[in-house]
Amino acid sequence: MSRLILFVFLLLILFIILQYLVKGMAAPRKKSSRDSEPEELVQDPCCKTYVPKRTAVRKRVEGKDYYFCNRECLRRFLQERDS
Q1: CATH fold of 2-26+39-82, please?
Q2: Alpha helices, DSSP H only, in 26-70?
């Protein structure tokens, strides 16, 4: 009978240790703040599409920043402003 109690006690200790180890491994890791923040989108004034600000083509015209999806839209925008 004492062997059975000792065996059950050892199983209980093993279960608690395994549960602690698994809980520590499954804890979510914090991502860097840059990865967790949503990207800011800006609208291209030429084709009206939204593009991430960090990848957009930026042009300052008369003190105002404009963002474009590509250089072709920038070129068309500048042509339309000049005419």
Answers
A1: Ribosomal Protein L24e; Chain: T; (2.30.170)
A2: 33-36
- Residue 48 CA to residue 73 CA, distance in Å, equals 10
Check if the beta carbon of residue 44 is closer than 8 Å to that of residue 69.
Answer: yes
Beta strands in 9-49 (DSSP E): 41-43
pTM as predicted: 0.55
Q: Which position has the token pair 């030429």?
A: 46
Q: Which of 58, 62, 53, 55 is nearest to 73 (CA)?
A: 58
State the Cα–Cα distance between residues 31 and 73, nearest whole angstrom: 35
- Condensed to tens digits (0 to 9), the pLDDT of residues 15-71 reads 999 888 888 776 566 665 556 678 899 999 999 999 999 999 999 999 999 999 999
Q: Please give the Cα distance from 41 to 14 (Å, whole number).
A: 52
